[in-house]
Amino acid sequence: MTVVTQPRALTFRRNVQVARVAIIAFIAFNLVAVQLMFIAAGPGKNLLGTIGRFLGLYLALVMALQLLLVARLPVVDRAYGMDRLTVWHRWTGMAIFWLALAHPAFVLLGFSRLDQVSFFATTVSLAKQLPVLLGMIAVVLIVVIVGLSVRAARRRLSYEAWHAVHLLLYVVVLLGVLHQVYEGSAFKVNLVTQVYWWGLWAFALGALIAGRLVVPLIRNSRHRLRVAAVVEEATDTVSVHITGRELDRLPARAGQFFLWRFPGHNGWWQVNPFSLSAAPNGRSLRLTAKGIGSTSAGLRDLPIGAKVYAEGPYGAFTSAHRTRGATVLIGGGIGVTPIRALLEDPDLTGHLVVLYRVRDAADAVLLGELRNLAEARKARLHVLTGRTASGYQPLGPERLLALVPDITARDVYVCGPDAMTTAVLDSLRRLRVPSRQVHAERFRLAG
After folding, report:
1. Where is each FAD-binding FR-type domain found (predicted)?
2. What b/e sequence results for 250-284 when a residue is b if at least 16 CB atoms lie within 10 Å of its CB, and e otherwise?
3. Residue 184: pLDDT band by 50, 70, 90 thresholds?
4. Average pLDDT for residues 371-395, to the nearest whole number?
5. Exposed, middle or buried: residue 371 (CB in 10 Å: 0-12, 13-18, 19+)?
6. CATH, residue 348
């Protein structure tokens, strides 16, 4: 099996390595800068208050980094992939949660000890000051957002409702910035600290506004996306064909996804991440979705000509990240959509093996297209059906090795439900497939 040696692939991997080094250096620089700012500000009036101020600085820094994650910067997306960034977003969110609880707690304890009054009395007294009150409201909103994001609560919310709750993040940011303007002290030590601190926040807010508002507005104004056709693929699954102007200028690749809105048909806050289910051809786009949430279930009712607002493309689940000359594509359920697009991607050269995991053959969406594409590309397609049981592991190490004996010498792309993806990744680790050859996207981003 040969390693991919095309100049384009080598250049891309080199650019990714440079981007990763730059990102790590950026984070390290800011961690050091915040520590130096804290030292320059000097000790506080008591230890508890000093700890509170220390935690507040890092709370603000982590919030700025969270904004950069939410901004979905293309350089970060290409370097790490949206699936990994989603995990980091969750970790960063939990860090904000604990810091948002600890920072005011230590500050209030410090004032309580300094003034020799109770913690409750100190809280009530300081809450009468508007800057402190704004910070307290921000903490309450953070608790609400994180509380509704834990797995038990998340299961009870539709994706649309969960996404709407996360819009409170922007309110938290506004309150946090106002709180810093009035209450910040460590970054007001001198002109250098002020320029650095507000420069960081200006960069984070600017990236957010550009990435989530300005660029999408420009692209949608240029391309004017419209629904061209709605095709029923199965009882609960439809494909939406979308056309527009100058789609050849849209930097989309097979395997990527967009955040889709359908103005006039759904509310502006209703958005879903659906993967492209066909390789972009410069003339049209296609998404295929299963009716789970209110937005996806209503796609079959979209009228022809309906306006479409797309944000993206996002994701590093593309052929640009491959490292070997042959590939295995593994899809499960509706997570097969980016797999089907990759199978059509002309940039994905070399021998291909496709593994499609479904409970029953009747559930195999787009199976006819997969068979036609596999035949045209001389690829091997295996449809793995049946319920997983102790004696039957369709994607276990032994089964994968039997289906693809040279799997350790191939790139492996995996997309499907979380449980399936986790099981496949575990099998690949046990087979000692090098991590650089494994590319995964969880079902939550596949749409």
Report:
1. 220-320
2. bebbbbbbbbbbbeebbeeebbbbbbbbbbbeeee
3. low
4. 89
5. middle
6. 3.40.50.80
Q: Determine the 3-state secondary structure of 169 from DSSP.
A: helix
- CATH number of residue 280's parent domain: 2.40.30.10
DSSP H/E element including 384: strand 380-384
**139 and 34 both lie in a single domain:** yes
What is residue 34's three-state secondary structure?
Answer: helix
Q: Is residue 2 part of a domain?
A: no
3-state secondary structure of 259: strand
- Strands 309-314, 257-261: pairing is antiparallel
User: What's the pLDDT tens digit per position in 229-264?
Assistant: 999 998 889 999 999 999 999 999 999 999 999 987
Say if 1 falls within a structural domain.
no
Closest CA to 208 of 71, 100, 102, 317: 71
DSSP conformational letter for 140 = H
Domain contains 343: yes
Give the count of beta carbons closer than 10 Å to the beta carbon of residue 19.
18
Tell me what pLDDT residue 43 has: 78
The encoded tokens of residue 242 equal 């979308």
Report residue 88: phi and psi, to 5°.
-65, -40
Residue 295 in tokens:
């937005």
Consecutive H or E run containing 83: helix 82-115
Task: Compute the mean pLDDT over every residue in the chain, rounded to the nearest whole number.
Answer: 88
User: What is the Cα Rg of the chain in Å?
Assistant: 25
Which range of residues forms the domain containing residue 55?
7-215
| Whether the predicted pLDDT of 203 surpasses 50 | yes
Is the Cα dihedral 191, 194, 196, 198 positive or negative?
negative
Determine the pLDDT at residue 10. 64
Q: Average pLDDT of 307-316?
A: 92
Predicted local distance difference test score (pLDDT) of residue 189: 79
Q: Which helix (H) or strand (E) holds 381?
A: strand 380-384
pLDDT of res. 8? 60
Asked whether residue 446 carries a pLDDT value surpassing 90, the answer given is no
- Those residues whose C-beta lies under 8 Å from the C-beta of residue 146, and which sit 6 or more positions away, are 93, 94, 96, 97
189/287 same-domain check:
no
Separation of alpha carbons 277 and 255, rounded Å: 8
Q: Helix, strand, coil shares of the chain as percentages rounded to 5?
A: 60, 15, 25
In this predicted structure, what is the pLDDT of residue 445?
40
Q: Assess contact for 113 and 48: CB atoms under 8 A.
A: yes
SS3 273: strand
- Model confidence band, residue 41 (pLDDT cutoffs 50, 70, 90): confident
The better pLDDT of the pair 82, 310 is held by 310
